[in-house]
Amino acid sequence: MGNTVNLTPKHLLVVLSIVLIWGVNFIAVFIGLKTLSPFLLSAIRFGLSALPWIFFLPRPKAPLKLIIGYGLFNFAMQFGLMFTGIHLGVSPGLASLVLQVQVFFSMGLSFLFFQDRPTAFKIAGSLISFLGIGIVAVNVDQGSTFIGLIMLLLAAFSWSAGNMFTKKVNSESPLALVVWGNLFAFPVMAAVSLFYDGPAVILSSLQSSSWVTLGAVFYIVYISTHVGYGAWSFLMKSYSTSAVVPFTLMIPVVGFLSSALYLGETLPWWKLLASVFIIGGLVFGLLEKQVYGLVKKLRSGG
Questions:
Q1: In 10 A of CB 196, how many CB atoms?
Q2: How many domains does the chain have?
Q3: 2-8 — which CB contacts under 8 Å span 24+ positions?
Q4: Domain boundaries, position 182
Q5: 4 located within any domain
Q6: What is the tens place of the pLDDT at every residue in 115-133?
């Protein structure tokens, strides 16, 4: 099952829904960070994602160290670093793009640990998409802090490492894996928030939270985490890494468009061109069966 190359139409719809959810999530994060610190927002996300659901969903049947590793890399480190990068000035649209370097990290780690060798088409498609990322890197404005971009790259690596734990953990319920992973991420980030923010700042931030902030937290926890990561965990277990992770390259397109619509983030020609390369590379990878089928047909006909 893990060697499946292309997604079924139903699962293709699922992964495209995840792309939409995660692309819009960057706006929710941006709104949440207006009131809450990166560490506090992370701790709240993990706490609400885990509780009270751990009392209703059994712990995944896997060694505890694998579940802890999944929680630390996929949640504590990824989102702690990502939220910090956005807090330091990286725009939501750009953050959604930089994070997609995880596609290449994931493919490399998957080959290293699982001998999950991507096909030539998948590699070529990813390289085409990477040209889109290169276009953004060349044209990005100077407003994004260098340290913020470093935080996003580290977050991307954390996500890819988390993907490896996802493939290792044998969980009958993808949502249970997400919930228990968040349980182990919560105390880590709560301790970090308490140390860096302090009780006074934490209390003040919670008291000044508006309904808009609460709405953003609701989206981050229940839509992005429970729905998004629950479905993602299922797909990562059902298909090879190279068949699933390239779809995340579409997240920046949603991130750019939602940032332009909601935040007024500019959408110049180079962002549109980058989006064309990103989507074009993904489509190229998806047409693998059709191209091989056509070549085979031409050969047999010849």
A1: 12
A2: 1
A3: 2/116, 2/167, 2/237, 2/238, 2/239, 2/240, 3/240, 4/238, 4/239, 4/240, 4/243, 5/119, 5/240, 5/243, 5/288, 5/289, 6/243, 6/286, 6/288, 6/289, 7/235, 7/239, 7/243, 7/244
A4: 9-301
A5: no
A6: 777 777 778 887 887 787 7
